[in-house]
Amino acid sequence: MISGWIVTETGRQPWVAYGILRTADATSPVPGASIAATLALFVLVYGVVFTMGIYYINRLIAMGPQGRAAEPPEFGTPVRPMSSATEAGREILSPRR
Amino acid sequence: MEWYLPVIWAALLGTAVALYVILDGFDLGTGILFPYAGNERERDQIMNSIAPFWDGNETWLVLGGGGLWVAFPQAYAVIMPALYLPVIVMLLALVFRGVAFEFRSVAITSKAYWNFAFAAGSTLAAFCQGLILAGLIVGIKVENGAFAGGPFDWASPFALLCGLGVVTGYALLGATWLVLKTEGAVTERARGQAKGLLLAVLAFMVVVSIWTPLAFERIAARWFSTPNIYLLWPVPLLTAFTALMEWRWLDERREALPFLASIALFLLGYLGLVISTFPYLVPPVLTIWQTAAAPASQIFLLVGTVALLPIILGYIVFVYWLFRGKVREGEGYH
What's the confidence (pLDDT) of residue A73? Predict the structure, then answer.
């Protein structure tokens, strides 16, 4: 998917809107130094977030499933995926006991 | 050109920004107060009080930014480059405080880092929003319809004042939210914090109200010329009255009223801002009519917005109703 995106974006150059607006004319009046600094910040922040995310996901997978699987519903046959949602919704919407 | 279309869009955007400031204000505020919690269980309780709401609250920022882009493209093209650095830093701060919800709940040894990420991200995001507010009040250098200033034009003592003011104001919203939504030690601490924060917010409001007419002639003219002054004097009076009532309600240990009073204080401050700047989107040069998109574009987008907005408002009310009541220690849906 990302390769396709890269092909689309590079293939359209030098236009940002094909035949209407050139990329060179579409840039914001923001100095290159600001762009470089914020790009570095984005890489840094996403690097930290993704690294930690992958670490936590791996640990959760290594731990395996915890506790028991969900209880079978008391009524309604669980033949379709939405039946458990229906029951949960019924429970929430019914008046307080 | 239809003169009323930009007015409708300005009202829509104004509503989106007001909703953002109030809703994300209180959840950013709980983040600002996060470091003062007594222990890990109290921190859990604070986070659980906002867990079902915070991401929905933040999406009003998307309507604010997206709406500015589609309805007032020229204002967007001037404001975003002028305030580029505070806007990007705000977004990155929101990344940290947003991901902290998920990572904190699965972290074992690294929990303290995500506590810090949540508190620092919330505080920095609020501070950047104050910088953006100040940048819009001070005004932006525009030549030939485009931003013509430097990357640090927004930096000023007034911006520092507004940054600290917004952090304090959000903390007040957060403290009164905790009074409403929690029980036990967290509530008691929040009630005490709310009183100090209320005084600080009033001080910021007074300083900004004196500073802006002195520094900006257009704001002085707007407030103090006749007949405006006769129509506008209730705004500061109502603000003082609301603050007085909030103090009393905190003393009387009311639960919902202090939070509603904090919201009212924010709305009054916001009204003051609108009075000071309308009809400028980029003060003091570009009005809502000068920066508006073509009427056909505004109508096209208005149809979609008018159809979707009631649905969104409806499910927001539903979520707040569903998660009504207090969050006790050890409770939470996460």
Answer: 62
Which tokens sit at A1? Answer: 């998917």
Please judge whether A34 and B77 are an interchain contact, meaning their C-beta atoms are less than 8 angstroms apart: no
Mean pLDDT along residues B81-107: 93
Chain B residues with CB under 8 Å of A60 CB are 106
Using a CB–CB cutoff of 8 Å, tell me whether A56 touches chain B.
Answer: yes
User: Binning pLDDT at 50, 70 and 90, where does residue B203 land?
Assistant: very high
Question: Can you read off the two tokens belonging to residue B4?
Answer: 């009323």
List the Cα angle B208/B211/B214 in 5-degree steps.
Answer: 145
- Contact yes or no for B92 and A41 at CB 8 A: yes
For A42, name the nearest residue in chain B, comparing CA atoms only: B92
Q: What is the DSSP letter of B182?
A: B
The per-residue pLDDT of chain B, averaged, comes to: 92
* A97 has pLDDT over 50: no
ipTM: 0.83
Name which of B280, B288, B135 is nearest B218 in CA terms: B280
Kindly list the residues from chain A whose CB atom is less than 8 angstroms away from the CB atom of residue B150.
31
Distance from CA of B147 to the nearest CA of A (A): 7
State the Cα angle at B201 between B181 and B185, rounded to 5°.
30
Q: Does A58 touch chain B (CB under 8 A)?
A: no
| Percent share of chain B, pLDDT over 70 | 99
Instruction: Say how far apart CA B287 and CA B102 lie, in whole Å.
Output: 42
